[in-house]
Amino acid sequence: MPLRCAVDLHIHSCLSPCADDDMTPNNIAGMAYVKNLDCIAVTDHNAAFNLPALEKTCREMNVVLLPGIEVTSREEVHILTYFPDVKTAVDFGRETAAHLLGAKNRPEIFGNQLILDEEDETVGTLDPLLIQATDLSIEEIEARCTQAGGLCVAAHINRSSNSLLGNLGFLPPRPRFAALEVYRGAAAPKVDTGAYKILYASDAHRLGDIAEREFFLPLEERSREGLFDYLKSCRARLGRED
Ligand SMILES: [Zn+2]
Ligand SMILES: [Zn+2]
């Protein structure tokens, strides 16, 4: 019998300029614990430098952390990428950030891009503005992510901006995502989502917005592997085994 695990697979840390500075590794893990979530994914924009600290803080709180990044395509569409381990995610983020279009962050306008250690001490900041587009197409992002051993989920497809439906106006037949994320704060998507598994997540940029125990996935085990394998099985059902 699969376990019914409460998940929130779309959370931003203080590396994302648009997220609050108190979205620290300890605060995120602590809030996930308080909310009794089984699994979270932290998915900063186009980089993943807070995942090493989060790996430690989540382990202390007995919260499963799925490493992720929210990548911005050249069409300005947000694609969630998930990885089986933190190192792969950090490396993928480094490669992704090299494809950002070139604007520098201006913290007084966009917010801080803080890299923290497991004590929530600031150990660095990032210069390229993370909330700009990359020069990668949606298909290129999916291909690169798959090549790296990751999985792609189209983010908040029903939002009016930075989404498949908002920016493209339709659900492209390619690439095959593992699943589609639907944002609860917007009208339901008016397209046929076919065999796609639909995921719900908070897209929290503030601590209080991290999801309650309200969205569940049936996992064979309460672990990163269990979660990753589940998402993989969603993709396999659509005809992608790799
Ligand atoms: Zn987004
Ligand atoms: Zn987001």
Low-confidence stretches: none
The CATH homologous superfamily corresponds to: Metal-dependent hydrolases
Binned strand content: 15-25%
Ligand types? zinc ion
In the CATH hierarchy, the third-tier topology is known as TIM Barrel
As a whole number of angstroms, the C-alpha radius of gyration is: 16 Å
Compile the SSE list and pairings.
Blueprint: E1 3-11, H1 25-34, E2 39-45, H2 51-60, E3 64-72, E4 78-82, H3 86-97, H4 107-110, E5 114-116, E6 122-125, H5 138-147, E7 151-154, H6 164-168, E8 179-182, E9 198-200, E10 216-219, H7 224-237
Parallel strand pairs: 1-2, 2-3, 7-8, 8-9
Antiparallel strand pairs: 1-10, 3-4, 4-7, 5-6
Helix pairs in contact: 1-2
Give a verbal description of the structure.
Helix 6 links the parallel strand 7 and strand 8. The chain has helices at residues 25-34, 51-60, 86-97, 107-110, 138-147, 164-168, 224-237; strands at residues 3-11, 39-45, 64-72, 78-82, 114-116, 122-125, 151-154, 179-182, 198-200, 216-219. With 242 residues, the protein is α/β, with parallel strands linked by helices. Strands 9-8-7-4-3-2-1-10 form an eight-stranded mixed β-sheet, sandwiched between helices. A two-stranded antiparallel sheet has the order 5-6. The longest helix is centred in the C-terminal third of the chain and has 14 residues, at 224-237. The chain starts with a strand and ends in a 5-residue tail after the last helix. It has a single domain (3-237), classed as TIM Barrel. Helices cover 27% and strands 21% of the residues. One zinc ion (ZN) binds at residues 70, 78, 155-156, 162.
